[in-house]
Amino acid sequence: MTATIAIVEDERAIAENYRDALRRSGYRVELYTSRPEALDAFRQRLPDLAVIDVGLGAEVEGGFELCREVRAMAPTLPILFLTARDSELDIISGLRLGADDYLTKDISLPHMQARINALLRRVSVLRDQGEESETLTQGRLQLDISRLHCHWGGEPVDLTVTEFWIVHALAKRPGHVKSRSQLMEAARVVLDDNTITSHVKRIRRKFQVLDSDFNAIGTAYGMGYRWQV
User: Fold this and answer.
1) Which residues carry this modification: 4-aspartylphosphate (predicted)?
2) CATH class as words, domain 132-227
3) CATH second-level architecture of 4-126?
4) pTM to 2 decimals?
């Protein structure tokens, strides 16, 4: 089945360049130039992955707002920011809003495609595993891999695909320290250490909304993280 990629980019020439490259790789590609246009389309039918620019026309941070809106609609949809804005604050902001990856426009087309392939492959692998209805339970945590669902004490926790992989990697071997590089490998994405740290902080906050005493993800200083039982 051909995956559909939505590109939300207000510079038409850039968007068409991305579209042509991805079509050559066999993807179906849809282009949108504004946040309202993309949001209306996503409400009708979600793509398999969304590539979003931060600045969209008059909306300087329209991409961030779109990410927030799409996350509310589809917690597990892979979202990748592709933008000229490369400040650490922008990168952290994008990840805090739930993006799975954040790239700058100086990246090569083959590198961009590799990151897109990795995001789509993660979803595919999880769903293939899910055909066996695999679940993982650790104390109050339950992961349903067939549907990419996470529950804590019976209450749903909306995790992105990247966050789901990180929790799965930690929880399947409680007590064992996972380095940031190991978590990157488990999440099947290339991120720097600060980005992994941002993801872990966001994951903790999501659990703490349901349980203010949540402390299952421990920090092994200078080493990584562990799932504490």
Assistant:
1) 53
2) mainly alpha
3) 3-Layer(aba) Sandwich (3.40)
4) 0.67
